[in-house]
Amino acid sequence: MSSDTQIHCEVDLDRDGCQGGFLRVPHSVHRSAYGWVPVPVVSIRNGDGPVVLLLGGNHGDEYEGQVALSRLAGELEPDRLSGQVIILPMANYPAARAGTRTSPLDGGNLNRSFPGSPLGGPTAMIAHFIESELMPRADFLLDIHSGGSSMQYRKPTLLVAKPDDPAHQERLMELVAALDFPQAVLYTESRGASYSTSAARRNGVLGMTAEMAGGGGVSRAAMSLLDVALPRYLAACGVYNGPAAEAPARIATELFADCGYLYARNEGVFEPAEVTDDPVEPGDSAGWIHYPDVPFTEPVELRFEISGKVLSVRMPARVERGDCLYELGFPISGQPGNWTGLPSNH
User: Which residues pair with 161 in a beta bridge?
Assistant: First the structure.
């Protein structure tokens, strides 16, 4: 592992038992010349075995992961483990504390910052610590997101990048089955990508992203799913042997290839069309942009440009040119787990 991180971890990751503390991220400002930013970290370890890294709060306005992982940290008992679970419930703590997607300290988007830098700002230092200090310890990564303040996923959705090792594809699909989400998007990640799953891939870690709900709130339905899915996922990773892991599967996961998007081309107030589970087709109505600031101006009707199923929808009505309005998934035909020919635009 790297020795050039500037972050001090209060938790001894090599020690058995349940520990909690902070990653101390150096941050020198007018208010505190020699201060540090506290990123919560939990380690629950029982001897040798698989190591699972769980992240929440990668984006600060995505709350289901923060709540679910905080609760899980209080419920997991070391004697139910064979290995280790490392939890960062608020991975980008400054953003999570502010309730914003990006850090108010440096504007950093943690999930666009990997591999980071040990000498960068707070976001870059956190990314570097996760990639260079935590990922080399881990065998599995689950990074729990949502649509944040600007988007809402209609159903909980897994995002699964094609692994470099073809032998890992079947293992990833086993983990998808264990999580038992309604939807999963399989995609090919570009080599220069800077997501947490990119950091996982570079370290040979089997990583996935979970998108829960969003809209700036906490979805009760999404939380209920995580309550069941997380213990079952840990059991599938081989680290957990608790009774909750035996809960039966309830959902037939629908698989999609990576997504297309519809963007606002004008500034105004967005009124979405009614969205159902049926696929949309090119030319179908996607909603309207209204111009209440210009009297007597007719709204502009938006139309979908591609076919697919709507995965997520914009929540705030006020939009600017370039804002994402819809995310569409392309249903996969053929065998689950076949990444052949998938796009890499995630």
Answer: 187
pLDDT given at position 344: 45
Question: Could you tell me the residue ranges of all domains in the chain?
Answer: 8-252, 260-328
Q: Is the pTM of this model over 0.85?
A: yes
What are the φ and ψ backbone dihedral angles of 70, each rounded to 5 degrees? -65, -40
Strands of 300-303's sheet, edge to edge? 300-303, 285-290, 268-272, 318-319
The C-alpha atoms of residue 48 and residue 30 are separated, in whole angstroms, by 45
CATH of 8-252, one of 1.10.3880.10, 3.40.50.300, 3.40.630.10, 2.60.370.10: 3.40.630.10
C-alpha atoms less than 13 angstroms from C-alpha of 146 in its C-beta half-sphere? 31
Q: Is residue 208 within 8 Å of 159, Cβ to Cβ?
A: yes
Q: Where are the beta strands (DSSP E) in the chain?
A: 8-9, 17-27, 35-46, 51-55, 83-88, 140-145, 151-153, 157-161, 183-187, 206-211, 254-263, 268-272, 285-290, 300-303, 309-314, 318-319, 324-331
How many other C-beta atoms are found inside a 10 Å radius of the C-beta of residue 84?
24
Segment 239-268 mean pLDDT: 82
Residue whose C-alpha is closest to residue 90's, from 127, 51, 55: 55
